[in-house]
Write a structure and sequence with these properties.
109 residues, 3 helices, 5 strands, 19% strand, 2Fe-2S_ferredoxin-like_sf, 2Fe-2S_ferredoxin-type, iron, Beta-grasp_dom_sf
Amino acid sequence: MKVTFITREGEKCAVEAAPGDSLLEVGQRAGMPLEGTCEGQMACSTCHVIIAREWFGRLSEASEEEEDMLDLAADVEATSRLSCQILLTEELDGLEVRIPEASHNAQGF
């Protein structure tokens, strides 16, 4: 299956993924600036992404804990999600995700 990331610069990057992968892992493998400092434990918002509006309704609803973490993220939009909380399914083949302008991976500095 494919996931398309749109970088901060507006470039599209289509990558291969498998059902069961987390969107965070797929993005990190593709070199996207998704830090994921808490390793998917919902203790940070460093994996914040913006889901294309036409795909947003296909995702399971965000939990209250995820919504609380999104309150701490920069550049939040109506279709923002934490990529660590999205597990890919066949129904999400073709998913389009935008990296927020303020997203920077500070790991490795």
